[in-house]
Amino acid sequence: MDIYQLKTFVTVAREGSITRASELLHLSQPAVSAHIKAIEDTLGLSLFERTPRGMSLTPEGQRLLARAQQTLVAHQALLEEATRIKGRLTGTLRLGAGSNSDDGATGRLLTTFSARCPEVEVVLRHGTSLDILQSIRNGSLDAGFYNEAGEPDAALSAVEVSRFGIHVVAPPRLVAASQPLDWSALADLPWIYPASSACCGRVAESLFMAHQIRPRRIISVDRESVTRTLIASGTGVGLLHTDTAKEARARGEVELLFEAPTPVRVLFAHLASRAHDPVLAMAASILREASPS
Length: 293
What we know:
Blueprint: H1 3-15, H2 18-25, H3 29-43, E1 48-51, E2 54-57, H4 59-86, E3 91-98, H5 103-116, E4 120-127, H6 129-138, E5 143-148, E6 156-164, E7 166-170, H7 183-186, E8 191-193, H8 199-211, E9 218-220, H9 224-232, E10 237-241, H10 242-250, E11 255-259, E12 264-271, H11 278-290
Parallel strand pairs: 3-4, 3-5, 8-9, 8-10
Antiparallel strand pairs: 1-2, 5-12, 6-12, 7-10, 7-11
Helix pairs in contact: 1-2, 1-3, 1-4, 2-3, 5-11
């Protein structure tokens, strides 16, 4: 029984699925099944039951899961201590970047990190902020940049690298000018913004709650460029990042109706339990040096 088999056991237990575990571990499904069988043969115990809903831990598997997790943590700590003893950083940094996050911060980190840690391989993956967060939590990413409209998860260690505002915008002349803004009239129009799990979606939901409205129709779009195009074409009102909103206004595409009171923060985050990982500590240190105090 080796450390890779233990990692497979923990991943299958967490995901409840050999298919999802194989995707996260970048292994074939037969390889994942073989790892589980090898552990069960070595221990002489059945760790999982196959059910219509997936893989379910047996009572014996549940008792051994915590021990397996502790072993993986100890293994990671051993590797980190060996790295500190050698006095140089090696290994791989699996980094995620949200599709609408701060590209400048990502570029600064990669440039400086590559110069300081030439022996560390960096693998960059793009996705939505929700994708990045889920991947950090399940261990398929070491760290990542994402947009946070509220408070970060307490299980994460985060560094703020920038922030931006969100504007409610509309096509020119679609909304009658009024002060204060007639939110009930806006509720009669289609609203264009991402799902509620995205930063703009969370801002939209907080605005609806604050002004006690619920739009009759919502068009969910996960790309800001598409949102901008739909709003400019007269489809409805929606949310844009401040820089994008002001650029669109300068081109005569939209009118700015309202600025959300709380800005969205762009955060670099990793699991707080890995705070002593020297590679992650170096990355966070680089960003703290560059970020405004």
